[in-house]
Amino acid sequence: MPDRYAYLGPEGTFTEAALLTLPNAAAAERFAFPTVPAALDALRSGTVDRAVVALENSVEGSVPTTLDELATGEPLQVVSEIHLPVEFALLVRPGTRLDDIKTVASHPHAQPQCRRWLSAHVPHAEWRAATSNAEAAQHVADGLYDAALAGSFAAARYGLEALASEIHDVEGAVTRFVELARPGRPPERTGADKTTAVAFIRDDHAGALLEILQEFFVRGINLTLIQSRPTGAGLGSYLFWMDFEGHISDARVGEALMGLRRVCADLRFVGSYARADGTAPHSRRGTADADFAEAAAWLDELRG
Questions:
Q1: CB burial readout 63-83, b (16+ within 10 A) else e
Q2: Smallest Cα–Cα separation from 105: which of 160, 51, 61, 172?
Q3: Rounded to the nearest 5 degrees, what angle is found at the Cα of 55, between the Cα atoms of 200 and 149?
Q4: I need a surface site. Which of 78, 140, 149, 224 has the fewest CB within 10 A?
Q5: Angle CA 278–133–21, to nearest 5
Q6: 3-state DSSP call for residue 174?
Q7: 9 CB contacts (<8 Å, ≥6 apart)?
Q8: Dihedral pair phi/psi, residue 67, rounded to 5°
Q9: Distance between CA atoms of residues 249 and 270, nearest Å
Q10: Alpha-carbon distance 242 to 220, whole Å?
């Protein structure tokens, strides 16, 4: 079992809260890193056994730094995902009032989730970016800023108090975190799985995206996320980050990956893992493993 975890620190981040939901994390050594790339590099080097990072938020969308690191950095593999409900608190030094707040710090993903609340309650406060919400709380404790948007659980850690809690513009916001390991055998199929891959188009031409999507359509595979990101090789050079239902051991998923491998300049497998919501995919008629096996047996018989 892994006993060393990296996460975006310092202590008191939502990433640490997500990490602590893993069954064996409470007894493991936990190492806080100042940035997502630093946490992932610790995993790549073998300093830690696993890393937990934020990947996507239901309000603000994907976390570009994480996507780019996993798509183009030294390969790592997703082994599980965590869905964590996210609500913010306005953390201040004791005695601070709303009228006293001239600056509010947070991670860049937190501010858009609370924009309307901030405009209504601290309209004259200026927002300041921090590498994490816990770092923002730490800066408030150090006197650099007046308030921080962070998890209420960070207040005690930094000697602050929550001037307001349950702050959000959209109720029910959820952040998706992933647990990462160095490349190896994927976790066993559960029947309610998700696969992540990154496709690099061969060249910029009409129908390039359609070629990718067709590999999923003809096999009845549902895409749950697709997002384009620049490769950095120049204008018009893009990769596509894709999450889709199923496990690499499923016949239809395996065939789709082979099809993508044929039509793409490169294809990176990022992982097959159990879905956090436990939703099992629906197999359209003709796309179940038994259908693939029957068709293969039929062809073998014809070939004689």
A1: bebbbbbbbeeeebbbbbbbb
A2: 160
A3: 145
A4: 224
A5: 30
A6: strand
A7: 15, 16, 32, 33, 34, 132, 134, 135
A8: -60, -45
A9: 14
A10: 15
| Residue given tokens 């120049």 in the structure block | 234
Distance CA 68, CA 238 (A): 12
Residue predicted with more confidence, 2 or 82: 82
| Among candidate residues 17, 19, 15, 23, the one with its CA nearest the CA of residue 5 | 19
CA distance 295 to 5: 45
User: In 113-237, where do the E strands start and end?
Assistant: 126-129, 147-150, 161-167, 174-181, 193-200, 223-230
Closest CA to 241 of 255, 223, 215: 223
User: What residues pair up with 78 in beta bridges, in sequence order?
Assistant: 180
Which tokens hold the place of 136? 């923002």
> Quick count: other Cβ atoms within 10 Å of Cβ 257?
19
Sign, CA dihedral 213-216-217-223, equals negative
What is the phi-psi region of residue 271: left when phi exceeds 0, alpha when psi lies from -120 to 50, beta otherwise? left
Encode pLDDT of 242-293 as tens digits: 999 999 999 999 999 999 999 999 999 999 999 999 999 888 888 888 888 8
Cβ proximity of 274 and 193 under 8 Å: yes
Distance, CA of 8 to CA of 180 (rounded, Å): 13
